[in-house]
Amino acid sequence: MSMTRIGNAKVLVSGAGIAGTALAWWLAEHGAEVTVAERADAPRDGGYKVDIRGAALTVVERMGLLDQARALRTGVRTGSVVDATGRRVASMDADTFGGRVHDDAELLRGDLSRILREATADRAGFRFGTEVAALDPDGTATFAGGARERYDLVVGADGLRSATRTLAFGAGGVHDLGHYVAIWSVPNHLGLDREELTYVGPGRTALVYSTAGQHDAKAMFLFAGDTAARPRGREAQERFLTDAYAGEGWEVPKLLAAMGEADDLYFDTISQVRLDAWSRGRVVLVGDAAYCASPASGQGTSLALVGAYVLAGELATAGLDAGPARYEERMRPFVAANQKLGPANIKRMVLRSRGQVRMSMRMLGVLNRLPGKERLLAKVVEPIHRAATAITL
């Protein structure tokens, strides 16, 4: 293939999430003709809060979108751990609680998605309700409706359960960390004002928070469980969750009851994607599809933004043939550093036994009364900051 330059290449990006949209922006910036295909019928708003950290801040700044992202910050002020009666055992400022340093920005996933999409709308073509059903090694994509189109490059940016990855690489690559995550909107019956409360039971964590500009609240449940038995379908998932948290105290029953009314339930295993290669023929993967670090890492959004930037940059300088390998070479160490956070963090977020919960509560209670507790807690944040800055752009 003589045409290896990105300049007038036809690129299909499968997935209109953070990685796919950011990639479309950068590819268009380098002169490519980009189409973004998204299986969902419409963009998804709302979503959980996500962090832009370290190198990812540089990417957003270079897109000229940092001020906009900052203006949409969640504004969460404090984080507290509560016991079964609702007593606040320990409270700290939200940045310390969320592992943020310096100018890291926390905003809702839907808000970040929207600013990226608005910035990219006049540079790339977005096709919602469009699914890639088959891929040929030469870059020919067959869509669910039967239409076929040939591209110079196809990029899978379609998340943990990437269909593009399965089509090009076969099944596999997903490694479960033995836990589940569930998130949904709930009425703010506790009257929280930009505050996050976390309840910890043995093998079961539940938290609820409110952000600036939202009248309701978000609940998040993290729990240990047999991931081989992953329930499919809404009804089965609700039942599974309700059984897992049966008998737990605090506001857990109320939060679970609100799940039935929520139209935004997200439920999945906490997993990582580990692959030997991120490209094959004319197909390359970016973001969670290639190297999901799991929600426990807190670095999925940053990996998506940095990965998009690096991939587009290497395609622009090294061309379509050598670019994917160069991208992989540059990103691998950064990905490895960030994936390490996942298993380590989940152990801190979900405690195994009653004894561990008791011990942890006692320690938090003591820590809460210590002068300079913020400084002590900052030590916990250090590995996250190190991983977030482990690449030079």
Q: What can you see in these coordinates?
A:
There is one protein chain. The chain has 393 residues and is of the alpha/beta class. The chain contains 13 helices and 18 strands. It has helices at 18-29, 55-62, 66-71, 94-97, 109-120, 163-169, 234-244, 252-259, 288-291, 300-339, 341-349, 354-369, 373-388, and strands spanning 10-14, 33-38, 49-52, 78-82, 88-93, 105-108, 125-128, 132-135, 140-143, 148-150, 153-156, 174-186, 195-201, 204-209, 217-224, 266-273, 279-280, 283-285. A hairpin with a 2-residue loop joins β13 (195-201) and β14. α10 (300-339) packs across α13. It is globular, with a radius of gyration of 21 Å.
Helices and strands, with pairings:
Layout: E1 10-14, H1 18-29, E2 33-38, E3 49-52, H2 55-62, H3 66-71, E4 78-82, E5 88-93, H4 94-97, E6 105-108, H5 109-120, E7 125-128, E8 132-135, E9 140-143, E10 148-150, E11 153-156, H6 163-169, E12 174-186, E13 195-201, E14 204-209, E15 217-224, H7 234-244, H8 252-259, E16 266-273, E17 279-280, E18 283-285, H9 288-291, H10 300-339, H11 341-349, H12 354-369, H13 373-388
Parallel strand pairs: 1-2, 1-11, 2-7, 4-13, 11-18
Antiparallel strand pairs: 3-6, 4-5, 8-9, 9-10, 12-15, 12-16, 13-14, 14-15, 17-18
